[in-house]
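<instruction>
Derive structure tokens from the sequence
<data>
Labelled lines for chain and fold
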Amino acid sequence: MKCRSCRQPAVIEVRRHNAGFCAGCFLRHCREQVARAIHDHAMVERGDRVLVPVSGGKDSLGLWDLLLDLGYEADGLYLGLGIGEYSDESRAFATGFAEGRGLSLRVLDLPAEHGFGIPDGAAAARRVPCSACGLSKRHLFNEAALEGGYDVVATGHNLDDEAAVLFGNVLHWSTEYLGRQLPVLPAARGFVRKVKPLIRLGEREMAAYCVLRGIDYIVEECPMAEGNRHLGYKAALDAIEERSPGSKASFYLGFLERASHRFVPDATVEQERLGPCISCGAPTTGEVCAFCRLVEKAHAAPAPRSEAVSVGRPRRRARGDA
């Protein structure tokens, strides 16, 4: 197969574009896709200070690298979640990336600073781990951005992630979530702007990008994600994509273009009910925000169990399985 752009031998095929790319043209393709997403949705302006939460995985580290390559001022934020060896390893990849490039990375640790890890917090609050993890990340990323004076938080949600979430929200007609599933959530009282610059790139493209850029990343899935329904949605969409390349992009990008505005009023109703949390001051629809309630329940639990929780790691995949 030849590169679509320069006709040199291709190193990767992107079926939804019906094209192959050599290494140099593929890296340019990734930069162009991120630049297009930023431009089309007015995600980031020149001069904005960007905070990139990094997990040590391909998407967040690749996003950080892409933003810097495009000339944006971007710092990193790593949040340790207290998930045994997995958290230790993911932190090593995040810090290794930052130190190797002389970048600024702030490291937070949920157990050290709030007294619980995700396994314990989820059990105490009777939440599935991904729910406890998600609300903790949203709260602490926003808090760190406000404290650090950042204009925007840029997360590594890629096309596969967004298509799977959209699939689940449509299956259940979760109109409030559909109204918020946008590539940009504007700044509001108590919230910094949140953006998703990778919406035009899939997981396989991000894995290939990191391999070609020499970015070392953790390849294991989070051990707490087993049973997460969104993994099932991803698998269903993968099967459709295999038979009809481009289906994920058509589904998600078509939603943004043709239908997302129809659900915005449902999300706006909830935004109008926001007030400050009496504990931390973060915006919430109740007296106490979800994160502070999680902290309270975790501290009220009879005994910490993080060290007893099994976080066995899946078989390690080759990093080049892009």
Q: What stands out?
A: The chain is about 50% helix and 10% strand. Residues 129-148 form the longest helix (20 residues). The two ends are 17 Å apart (CA to CA).
